[in-house]
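Below is a filled-in request sheet from our internal design queue. Each sheet records the structural input a requester submitted and the sequence that came back. We keep these sheets so that new team members can see what a complete request looks like end to end.

REQUESTER: design group, bay 2
PRIORITY: normal
MODE: inverse folding
CHAIN LENGTH: 257
BACKBONE (tokenized):
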């Protein structure tokens, strides 16, 4: 048996994080997969100074609109196949790394935000459905699934500091939360809740406004999910709110395979 350590972080600009030296902790942390969202950069723009650790593979999926979105996946595990799931990310916004190893498909995803307007909310919901269909097709092929990233929705009232004040805000709308209920009904596990139960006041994103992080007025919108067949392989799931550098904090998952 081997423990695999996964880290997920929406860095809100990888070059901005580099200027803060906010990824240096990677050098002293055991990591097999480092999945970053909202890198806002092309592959050649990722600073070589972000950390000293050398991963055996780096896969970058950048948005067709420069300076927006984008995901990067650093891996110490060799890939069997890598994809960008264009059939899900139909606007080519650089939202998905799809990484195959052993009999597992690992997704690093920056899901759309629906707060801009009604059109973007509709796109977000359609993206959710396309992604679920894509995962289910892989499961039918016998694949196990691991998903991480910024889902841009707080699932339950326990996952947001001020639920009543945000019930009409995208990210906590009933339709978005209902979709997460549907997603879990397909046999996916929210690993943080699996490990920590109904632990309160645990968030992964805080507004930059009004001292939200200092007062822990946050949202839990970053997740690690696994397909049900991996449930018993989960040995750790954490929110690393001690790490700064973005409006999100990193989250982690440890699987014993």
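RETURNED SEQUENCE:
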């Amino acid at each position: 048996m081997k423990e695999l350590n996964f880290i997920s972080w929406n860095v809100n600009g990888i070059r901005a994080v580099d200027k803060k030296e906010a990824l240096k902790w990677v050098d002293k942390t055991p990591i097999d997969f480092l999945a970053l969202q909202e890198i806002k950069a092309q592959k050649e723009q990722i600073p070589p100074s972000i950390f000293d650790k050398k991963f055996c593979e780096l896969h970058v999926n950048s948005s067709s609109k420069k300076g927006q979105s984008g995901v990067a996946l650093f891996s110490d595990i060799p890939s069997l196949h890598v994809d960008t799931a264009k059939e899900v990310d139909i606007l080519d916004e650089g939202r998905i790394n799809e990484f195959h190893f052993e009999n597992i498909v690992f997704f690093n995803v920056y899901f759309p935000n629906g707060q801009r307007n009604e059109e973007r909310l509709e796109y977000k919901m359609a993206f959710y459905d396309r992604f679920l269909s894509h995962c289910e097709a892989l499961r039918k092929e016998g694949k196990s699934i691991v998903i991480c990233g910024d889902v841009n929705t707080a699932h339950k009232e326990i996952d947001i500091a001020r639920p009543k004040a945000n019930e009409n805000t995208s990210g906590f709308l009933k339709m978005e939360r209902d979709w997460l209920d549907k997603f879990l009904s397909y046999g996916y596990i929210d690993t943080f809740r699996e490990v920590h139960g109904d632990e309160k006041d645990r968030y992964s994103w805080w507004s930059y406004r009004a001292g939200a992080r200092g007062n822990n007025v946050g949202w839990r919108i970053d997740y690690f999910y696994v397909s049900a067949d991996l449930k018993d392989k989960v040995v750790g799931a954490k929110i690393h709110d001690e790490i700064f550098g973005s409006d999100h904090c990193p989250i982690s998952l440890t699987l014993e395979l």
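SHEET NOTES:
- The chain has one domain: 3-256.
- The two ends are 5 Å apart (CA to CA).
FILED BY: M.R.
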